[in-house]
Each structure stands twice: as structure tokens, then as C-alpha cells.
Amino acid sequence: MRNVKVISSEECVPKHKLLVMDMWFKATKSWHRKFEPRVQVRKLNEEKTCEEYRRMVGDKVEEAKWKGLGVNDHWQQMKGIIIESAQDICGLTKGPRRHKETWWWNEEVAEAVREKKIKYGKWKRESTKEARMEYKKSKKNAKRVISSAKEKKQKECANDINDPECQNEIFRMAK
Questions:
Q1: Which H or E element spans position 7?
Q2: Residue 92, helix vs strand vs coil
């Protein structure tokens, strides 16, 4: 808090004075939501999958025991049938991709990145110029190693472009 002032001529409420100040707050770290698998309902656009889903829901509705249930129990049972059938037929999402581009990743890159992370931690703990310079050197080295690995892998793929075994690899990288 800084510049705290009471303005005595200004009454907010009887027997209370206006207080003015500058306040600074630290921003809190926002947490990412945890991944929750979702049903892949887009697969129901395919006619074969849609027909299979309809058949499964119809079979489960016929098998269900509906007598003696209230409206809410009816709804919960029907909801369970619909969701369970969709999960069985369509499947669930597997989660976010961990590494977006790992087709060029190798042991040399892993070692350079590991060294960079260690130097970064040392710089943050010690807060010295020497540690910062070491981190900057390892960061520059990691960038160099990554770019050379990417270039090497691209040249390999360019040479193997007509090989039928590597065509699937090329489509996977393009994805």
C-alpha cells in the first residue's frame, strides 16, 4: 500500500471518512482444468455408426424396467442408457497431445534440453550473472541442436519420400 490518505471533508456515511490509497496485488497463478474425456459424438454423422447406436439404445430401452419409477428416475435411467450407448459406440477422447512435434526428437536433443532446464533452475536459485550466462549459453546450444536435428530429419524424409514404408510417416508428420 502506498499513498494512503484520509479525505476529511468527504463523508461517505455519517461519522465515516473517505480513505484513498494505491494498492498492488500479486497475480495468482491460474490453474489449468484437468482433462475430462468426452464422448466423440461426431462419429454419429456416419450412417453405419448412427444405425448401430440407434439399435443399441433401442435394445437397452426394451430391456430396462420402467414400472414403478418416478419421472426423475425415468429420466436418469434414460440418460444413463443414452450416455452409455454413446460411449460404447463412439468412444471417448484420449486427452490433449503431449508433444506436438516429436518426429525430430532424439537423444542429443533430449540431453541439450535437459541441460538447459538444469541451468535454468540453477540461475533461478542463485540469481547470479554467471548462472544467467551459463543458462543463455545452454539455451542457445539447445536451439542449435534442435534446428540441426529437424534439418537432418527433414533431409532423411526427403530422401525416403518415394519409399512406401515412409509414406505413412510423412502423413503422420503432416497431421
A1: strand 2-11
A2: strand
Decide: helix, strand or coil at residue 4.
strand
Taking a C-beta distance cutoff of 8 angstroms, is the pair 81, 57 a contact?
yes
Q: At what angle do helices 164-174 and 129-159 cross, to 10 degrees?
A: 140
23-77 tens-digit pLDDT: 888 777 777 778 888 999 999 999 999 999 999 999 999 998 888 888 899 999 9
* H or E element at residue 119: helix 107-126
Q: Cα angle at 68 between 65 and 69, to 5 degrees?
A: 80
Q: Give me the phi and psi of 165, to 5 degrees please.
A: -65, -35
The pTM of this model reads: 0.42
What CA–CA distance (Å, rounded) separates 127 from 129? 7
Closest listed residue to residue 111, CA positions, set 138, 132, 129, 85: 138
